[in-house]
Predict the structure.
Amino acid sequence: MNDINVVVLAAGNGSRMKSTLPKVLHNVAGKAMIDWVLDAVLPLKPDRLITVTGVGSQAVRNHVGDKSRFVTQEVQQGTGHAVQQAYPELKDSQGITLIMSGDTPMFRSESLADFVEEHRRSNNTVTVLTAHAENPTGYGRIVRADDGTILKIVEEKDASVTERRIQEINTGVYVFDNQLLFEALSRVNNDNVQSEYYLPDTLDILRTMGYQIGAYQIQDFTESLGVNDRVALSVANKIMRQRINRQHMLNGVEFLDPDNTYIDAQVQIGQDTLIEGNVTLQGETVIGTGNHLTAGTRIVDSRLGNDNVITSSQIEESEIGNLVTVGPFAHLRPKAVLANQVHVGNFVEVKGAEIGEASKVGHLTYVGNATIGKDVNIGAGTIFVNYDGVHKFHTNVGDRAFIGSNSKIIAPVEIADEAITAAGSTITDDIEKHAMGIARSRQTNKADFWKRMPHKKDN
Ligand code: UD1
Ligand code: CA
């Protein structure tokens, strides 16, 4: 008797997005809208969770995976018609059914739980979640009688001039008595401007049948934001990021310019980390405590320990220990692993390489496919030549080795502990412990060469 079903509508073509990507797969703060919706309803522990897919069905299903069951709406004939597709899955349920749209990513789980609770307390056959909108454009309007009871919902396109002035909007979230939901849906027609079967029409139908219908207004309009186009998407992103940043601040992370700091939903950050403006943290990134990320830094799917300073640099799929300094303008590409106290300086690129404790790669260097030991110094302008156009080759550099500036290290080579390369060398052979590899041609000076040079007359 007490069971709860959830239906998420995600079959529409989202034409107003003007995108090849199905609307519900567009990201808000790095997480697809459909995932925000599903993650908000999962704590309600639904007995059945059904997502209605249609346009881009396969892409949506692949993305969602086994979080939800699915039904298909082959032709998009409106939200009422979409819910009807779930009938085979729900026909035996004597419980209640929460319906949501896949394009309303802002609802908090707590607000939905309160709403369901409110419905259970009432004797309503259906309760609709409403909100007060400063600008109600685009939403269905809640039409109430003089005594305040709800009569019906009218879509903007079908609304009279007076109805369009109503600021109470339909958030697109409802709880229905499951059996009466489908009873009402069977009576919905498509006699409206869009020739669609509107889910909101079920309220008027149930009321006319003599059932009690109700409306519950959410406090914060921003939770009910529906994303139909890129303008609304940018608003949703902005509000979601403010929410995320605020939570990090409450957890002890310091922001210099939270309005211009872009942190994805899943990112974790330890306390006393200082984040300057225009920093972007994306994907499954984990940042420890006491780090300092300066303006312009972008970190994607990476893990940082504690007390690192990242100065205006790009870091992707990499791992950094503690007390590391990176940048300015360094680029850590996938599988860069920096041990504690490493320094990677300006205009350095590291890819598929481990750099051991306290080693330094200060300037204008490319380290690719290498294992570098501890306390190694890599001079300016060093290139690890790791690619022949087809294969990648690996280089090992031992502890305390000293790589002279402008060395070219043609992989694969083994440079032993405490080995040295002479500046300007092109290293093609292994270097044993304590040896210096030098590979450059001798300098010769041509005496009196100045005199053979052409000179301008007045010089
Ligand atoms: C809908 C409501 C409107 C409400 C608003 C809240 C209707 C008729 N209107 O309008 O009252 O204020 O949401 O955000 O319900 N969908 C399908 N199949 C369809 C049509 C739509 O699955 O045939 C899905 C869409 O993918 C979307 C959701 O239903 O996730 C809502 O559809 P949309 O076209 O965005 O409705 P709105 O115009 O926003
Ligand atoms: Ca919508």
About this structure: The domain at 4-224 is CATH 3.90.550.10 (Spore Coat Polysaccharide Biosynthesis Protein SpsA; Chain A). The mean pLDDT is 97. The radius of gyration is 31 Å. The first strand starts at residue 4 and ends at 10.
